[in-house]
Design a protein that fits this description.
14% strand; alpha/beta; globular; Rossmann fold; 258 residues; 9 helices
């Protein structure tokens, strides 16, 4: 039987590439996104690539009622899920000295954090009942420390890392796996506004997704990449004393402001 896979945020970037690569393996795909036209175009593409079945679900992951309705449709069509790849994410950036608004945080957290929590709430009971399944949440290397000009995004990804780690600890021994995915810089619509020189070890979506899929299949607790960048951030930058980190990171604020 083909794997039954949910991919949230499937209309662009990593989500779109995930759909195409998993379609090539014949997986059954439930694809969510807010842009109906793009979602329908992707559905045709994955069918042509060999997907074992495709279900498109238009709506916002930040809306709990939408998520519940979408999961009911998945159960009706696929009889459940083997993988839930919770990839949907948005970003807001800018120097807090110039503009700080709680609305930016509400918007970003609504999708990146609560959107993920909404889907976990929906899929987890059935996975626990079946004593199997994988929840793979897409966080970011940006969640390891508070990055300059990235307050809403960076802090939301830090919350996602902690959310998934707590979930993994709680679910130990249940048969349900929890995988935290922390990409570095990947060439997507979200990063298109930045200069390549400001994104060290920039990866193409195809290469990033190959690593993601391999990590999910292996049931790794953490999939972070590219390894030269993620290793430095995880073990060096994250452990810098605050006084040093503040001084170094503030240079990034000044550089990006130019």
């Amino acid at each position: 039987m083909s794997h039954r896979v949910l991919i949230t945020g499937a209309t662009s970037g990593l989500g779109k590439e995930l759909a195409m690569q998993l379609a090539n393996e014949g997986f059954m795909l439930a694809l969510t996104g807010r842009r109906e036209e793009r979602l329908n175009e992707l559905a045709q593409a994955v069918k042509g690539a060999g997907a074992g079945g495709v279900l498109t679900l238009t709506g916002n992951v930040a809306d709990p009622a939408v998520v519940k309705r979408h999961y009911a449709l998945i159960v009706e069509r696929f009889r459940g899920l083997d993988w839930a790849i919770l990839n949907a994410g948005i970003s807001k950036s800018g120097d807090a000295k110039e503009r700080f608004t709680a609305d930016d945080y509400r918007l970003v957290y609504g999708v990146n954090v609560f959107g993920m929590a909404n889907w976990i709430e929906a899929v987890l009971p059935d996975m626990l009942k079946e004593k199997s399944g994988t929840i793979a949440g897409v966080a970011s290397v940006a969640g390891y420390r508070g990055l300059p000009r990235s307050g809403p995004y960076s802090s939301s990804k830090a919350a996602v890392i902690a959310l998934l780690e707590s979930l993994r600890v709680d679910l130990r021994g249940t048969g349900v796996k929890v995988v935290t995915v922390c990409p570095g810089f990947v060439r997507t619509e979200m990063t298109a506004k930045w200069k390549d020189e400001d994104m060290p070890f920039l990866m193409e979506p195809r290469d990033a997704v190959e690593i993601m899929i391999a990590g999910i299949k292996a049931g790794k607790r953490l999939v972070d990449f590219p390894w030269p960048f993620s290793t430095v951030v995880k073990y060096v930058v994250r452990n810098l004393p605050g006084c040093i980190y503040d001084r170094v990171a503030s240079r990034g604020t000044r550089r990006r402001a130019k």
